[in-house]
Specification:
Blueprint: H1 2-11, E1 17-21, H2 28-36, H3 50-53, E2 65-72, E3 89-90, H4 99-117, E4 123-126, H5 134-140, E5 145-146, E6 152-153, E7 161-168, H6 187-191, E8 197-199, E9 202-203, H7 209-215, H8 222-225, E10 231-233, H9 237-240, H10 243-248, H11 268-272, H12 276-282, H13 292-307, H14 313-319, H15 325-338, H16 341-353, H17 357-374
Parallel strand pairs: 3-10
Antiparallel strand pairs: 1-2, 2-7, 4-7, 5-6, 8-9
The structure holds iron/sulfur cluster (2 copies).
One iron/sulfur cluster is lined by residues 147-149, 182, 185-188, 241-244.
Length: 375
């Protein structure tokens, strides 16, 4: 039955596929310590429902096995595209459609297949949607080992794959975990621009660009903004440098995960000009919706401060009049970073009309930065 179920999963495009027992997670103590260190930042949901998170049998009382399924999301090519310069970067997983819906539908199809194979089967589908430590199950199910960057790496595929699970009432044959093949490599730790991988196998989300550009809802800490570079949604650096991805990663055959037009290398000024209607239209069914317009434009402003120049001052000047104070704050920071007479003038003018206390603070700091550089 296990082989039939795995074959059905592969027919539906899942790969790798494996089975873990429904026993409590192995990394539970590690997880609690990670939460205790505050590394989850503002992701308060990760600390909720701990009793259920510590044992899936609290969610599905008759759970016996967890089917873990991977789905490759690596888009076809990173070719540069038309659109305004300078360009931003979006994490590869977010360039196509939202994987939650794609994977969930596919896992429900798989559950129906499993019920055809074994009519007594009952299952619960999860795709990052509930209190389940999915990487723990996936590692035990042999889908990969925890890399030092904390993503799961499959020896034959690398790490560009999503995870989903079906918690089942069936007693299936469990797989063996893959041994750790990181060895003495430290490339991900060395390449991380914000030193978010504070030690091997431990990421402080509060420093991670993925967290800063997606999960964090307020202002990005000033000390980290320069290191965010031109990433406007997520960050792939630690996976890009991983030798296992260099050796083994292949593009996905899933159309849904191919990059939408313009998202391999989006023009930053084009993004900064989006109003709410344009944002909603462009990012319908996209993971980028999660940042909301205000979050994405905050990130775009930071990226322009890092990789923009005098030509981008007019666009940032427009952003100083945005309805969202968060966007105005970060546009001010970017103008302070770019500097020059025009940036100084637009900041001076904006400061006269600004009413938001944080935006006023950012504008003053930006003007100070320009003045200091002029001395
Ligand atoms: S995603 Fe980027 S910021 Fe986060 S740990 Fe990896 S390299 Fe560092
Ligand atoms: S870059 Fe090196 S240390 Fe980091 S996850 Fe890959 S193999 Fe492991």
């Amino acid at each position: 039955m296990t082989d039939q179920i795995k074959a059905a999963a592969r027919r539906l495009g899942f790969n790798p596929v494996g089975i873990a027992s429904a026993d409590p997670p192995q990394h539970w103590a590690f997880y609690q310590k990670w939460l205790g260190m505050g590394y989850a930042g503002e992701m308060g949901y990760l600390g909720r429902n701990l009793d259920r998170r510590s044992d899936v049998r609290q969610i599905v009382p008759n759970a016996k096995s967890v089917l873990c399924a991977g789905l490759n999301y690596l888009p076809d090519s990173d070719a540069s595209e038309n659109g305004s310069h300078p360009k931003g970067q979006i994490a590869r997983y977010a360039r196509g459609d939202d994987y939650h819906a794609v994977m969930e539908d596919r896992l429900f199809e798989l559950l129906a297949e499993i019920q055809r194979i074994e009519p007594s089967a009952e299952g619960r589908v999860y795709v990052d949607t509930g209190p389940v430590l999915e990487r723990d199950f996936a590692a035990r199910a042999g889908l990969g080992w925890f890399g030092k960057h904390t993503c799961l790496i499959d020896k034959g595929r690398g790490s560009w794959f999503f995870l989903g699970e079906i918690i089942l009432n069936l007693e299936l044959e469990c797989d063996q975990p893959q041994p750790d093949h990181c060895g003495t490599c430290t490339q991900c730790l060395d390449a991380c621009p914000t030193d978010a991988i504070v030690e091997p196998y431990r990421v402080d989300s509060r420093r991670c660009i993925s967290y800063l550009t997606i999960e964090l809802k307020g202002a990005v800490p000033r000390a980290l903004r320069s290191d965010v570079g031109n990433w406007v949604f997520g960050c792939d650096i630690c996976q890009e440098v991983c030798p296992w991805n260099h050796k083994h990663a292949e593009p996905t055959s899933e159309d849904a995960f191919q990059a939408r037009p313009g998202l391999n290398a989006p023009g930053l000024v084009d993004l900064l000009h989006m109003d709410q209607a344009a944002f909603s239209k462009r990012f319908k069914n996209s993971p980028i919706k999660r940042a909301k317009r205000r979050g994405l434009l905050r990130n775009v402003a930071i990226a322009l401060g890092n990789v923009g120049g005098q030509s981008e001052v007019p666009a940032l000047s427009d952003a100083l009049k945005d309805d969202e104070p968060l966007v105005r704050q970060h546009a001010a920071w970017a103008l302070g970073k770019i500097g020059g007479d025009q940036a100084q003038q637009v900041l001076d003018e904006a400061l006269h009309c600004e009413r938001d206390a944080e935006a006023i603070k950012e504008m003053r700091l930006a003007l100070e930065a320009i003045n200091q550089r002029g001395k």
